[in-house]
Specification:
alpha+beta; seven-stranded antiparallel β-sheet
Amino acid sequence: MEWLIIVLILMFVAAPVMWLKPSPRQKRLVKLRRELGQQGVTIKLEKPPLHEFKGTMPAYRWRYPEQAPGPDFTLVRDSHASEALETYLPGWRWRVAPLRPLPESAHPFFARLLERLPQDALIIESDPQALTLWWWESQNEERFQQYLDDFKGLRDALAGHSDQPRTQPMGPLDTSE
């Protein structure tokens, strides 16, 4: 009987420790986020630009250089988009289309990404500060590494193609004439 009481006490003490132990998914996400963070990707949990979405979702951001802001657009996977929206490539629709045509150099990167991204990648968004992927992190860092060059290439191709032309501060007037 004493052994049974000792075993029950040990199980009672060990149970909270087991709850604190990270799950395999949590370990995978920590490794994924750490690896991509070291490569310049900013990762935050935020409310995505989806209609009637409640809660937060992981947002992976590739920042544009401050002197070369990017265009504004939101591209949504068909499964989360209205059929009234304009199709960009099969499976993806513009929720907010860019005001000016995207540079030709961006199209190959977009095509490769949109063909290969996992089904839980729902949105690709751009604003003057960053290119953002909204997804549910279904893959590990080795698999996601396959997309990094295309995301960096897309960011570089879109940098400097802001919808708003940058205005330079006015300097002194040249009155030498």
